[in-house]
Amino acid sequence: MSIDPRIMKTMLQLQWMQSLDMNGSGTSNVLSPDNQDGSLFGTMLSQLLSGAAEGGGFGNADVLSSTSSTAALMPLLKGSLPLTYNGEYTATAASANPTAYDNYIEAAAAKYNVDPALVKAVIDTESSYNPNAVSSAGAKGLMQLMDGTARGLGVSNSFDPQQNIEGGTRYLSYLLNKYDGNVQAALAGYNAGPGRVDRAGIHNNADVAEKLHLLPQETQKYIAKVMNAHAMYGLS
């Protein structure tokens, strides 16, 4: 009997998500010095992102629905679980769970072609919507940007919600583009740094499922928490 590879992929996704401690710390030391790819990271990032706003889509859509009946996965039963992103977003779906920063989120999401529900999920996981949040590594603001990275993204004040969301969404857009729209791989890069993700041989969501153990535990938990939050914010 053959099994639809999409269903198998979903099963693997749900298996590793359930294996994580979903109550673990969600505060990420995202873009900390240890996660950056050298002292010229900010400059290189600025160059890489120079054309991000004109970058177009992020590959083919691969939206899979959860089929689990467990209570723990009920949020996923109410909607689809996007594993890859094709550069299209639905403002109506994200608006089903409004926040105080919706205007900034929608504007940045539209500018950089990122799902606003994913931006909300990252903010929720990174800072719980605290614009003054500072991590132990010095990451700041809603999307937890390090100073050097913020400068590379054109952010002069990480505690300014509009600037922070603009910069964080721009960086998320770059990662989605780098990993061909594979959301989990992009989230791994956001948390652990793309250099570390690349060295682990991770290039897409299938690689994340196969090589998750090569990533820090914090990153493993981070991916699962953002994906759960994404499902919540994406409900229509």
From TrEMBL:
<comment type="similarity">
    <text>Belongs to the transglycosylase Slt family.</text>
</comment>
<dbReference type="InterPro" id="IPR000189">
    <property type="entry name" value="Transglyc_AS"/>
</dbReference>
<dbReference type="InterPro" id="IPR023346">
    <property type="entry name" value="Lysozyme-like_dom_sf"/>
</dbReference>
<feature type="domain" description="Transglycosylase SLT">
    <location>
        <begin position="104"/>
        <end position="204"/>
    </location>
</feature>
<protein>
    <submittedName>
        <fullName>Lytic transglycosylase domain-containing protein</fullName>
    </submittedName>
</protein>
<dbReference type="Pfam" id="PF01464">
    <property type="entry name" value="SLT"/>
</dbReference>
<dbReference type="InterPro" id="IPR008258">
    <property type="entry name" value="Transglycosylase_SLT_dom_1"/>
</dbReference>
